[in-house]
Structures are given as structure tokens and as C-alpha cells.
């Protein structure tokens, strides 16, 4: 009887421990969702910046073409051509430097975007693992609860067997006016 009570206490302790673990898993999943939202926001910001850089690079390419067109028009004007040519060279060099800077920034943003995507994939994997562990813990807790219920039923059955019903007791028959022979 004492062993059964100890077993019930052990199962109740195990059920409580599993309940705490399940609660901790739920808290971890909430933190994971918050981090996922932050990373998604960062990816959106980086994509916006990348689009702005691409638009700026397009503007620079257009400017460069305009300068080339002007160069052709000014080809006939020898005196102004030299000055225009010098401005064209400086503009081309400056545009080239700016394009290099923008290409570098775009590459950095692509790298960051890739890293953030990897982090997001890692977080998704962690989330799935947390959900799997939570499910496993819930199943274990359910099994423990079923064992506790089974043990309590068994204790009640044993208690009933230990105490005989009143009609089997000698005092019952004596109080009824007849003795048990």
C-alpha cells in the first residue's frame, strides 16, 4: 500500500515536471516567433534598400547615355568639344565610382539578405523541433496521467478488498441477533 502511494507521488511529480517543461517550451516558441518577425522586418528593409540602389544605378546609366549623346552632338563644335569631353570624362569617372559603390552596397545587401534567410530557415527548424518536443512531452504527460488514474483505481480496488462488507463481519451478525457459526 505504501509502495503504491509512493508510486502515485512519483507519477504526480513526473507529471508536474513535464507540465513545467511544456510551459517552458511554449515560452521558447513565443521568443522564436518574435525573433522571426524581427528578421522578416530586416529582410524587408534590405530588399527596399536594394531596390532603391537598383533604381539609382538605372538613373546613373541613363545619365551616362545622355552624356554620350551630348558628346556626339558636340563633336562638330571643336572648341566646346574639348571642355565637354573633360566634363564627360569626369562625369563618367564619378558615375563609375558611384556605380562601384552601389554595386558594393548591393552585394553587401545580398549577402545580408542571404544570411538573414539562413537565420530564418534555422529559426523555422528550431520552431519545428520545439513543437515536436512539446508534442512528445504532451504525450508523455498524458501517459503519466493515465498511469496515475490506473494506479488510483487499483488503490481503490485494493482498499475495497481490504475492508470486508458489513454482512461478513461478526459484529454485524451479533447485532442482528444471531451469531456466526
Query: Percent range for helical residues?
Result: over 70%
End-to-end separation in angstroms reads 32 Å
Q: Profile the largest sheet.
A: none
The general outline is rod-shaped
Short description:
With 181 residues, the protein is an all-alpha fold. The chain has helices at residues 2-74, 78-162, 170-175.
Textual characterization of the structure:
The chain is rod-shaped and about 145 Å long. It has 181 residues and is mainly α. It has helices spanning 2-74, 78-162, 170-175. It has three helices and no strands. It is 91% helix and 0% strand.
Topology overview:
Layout: H1 2-74, H2 78-162, H3 170-175
Summarize this structure as a short list of keywords or feature phrases.
single chain; 91% helix; 181 residues
Amino acid at each position: 500500500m505504501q509502495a503504491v502511494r509512493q508510486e502515485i507521488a512519483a507519477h504526480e511529480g513526473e507529471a508536474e515536471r513535464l507540465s513545467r517543461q511544456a510551459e517552458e517550451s511554449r515560452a521558447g516558441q513565443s521568443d522564436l516567433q518574435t525573433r522571426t518577425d524581427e528578421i522578416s522586418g530586416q529582410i524587408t528593409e534590405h530588399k527596399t534598400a536594394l531596390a532603391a540602389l537598383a533604381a539609382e544605378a538605372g538613373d546613373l546609366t541613363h545619365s551616362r547615355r545622355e552624356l554620350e549623346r551630348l558628346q556626339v552632338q558636340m563633336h562638330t563644335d571643336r572648341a566646346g568639344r574639348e571642355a565637354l569631353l573633360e566634363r564627360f570624362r569626369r562625369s563618367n569617372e564619378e558615375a563609375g565610382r558611384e556605380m562601384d559603390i552601389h554595386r558594393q552596397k548591393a552585394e553587401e545587401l545580398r549577402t545580408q539578405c542571404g544570411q538573414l534567410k539562413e537565420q530564418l530557415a534555422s529559426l523555422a527548424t528550431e520552431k519545428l523541433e520545439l513543437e515536436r518536443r512539446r508534442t512528445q512531452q504532451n504525450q508523455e504527460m498524458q501517459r503519466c496521467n493515465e498511469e496515475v488514474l490506473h494506479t488510483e483505481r487499483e488503490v481503490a480496488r485494493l482498499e475495497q478488498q481490504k475492508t470486508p462488507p458489513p454482512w461478513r463481519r461478526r459484529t454485524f451478525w451479533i447485532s442482528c441477533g444471531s451469531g456466526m457459526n
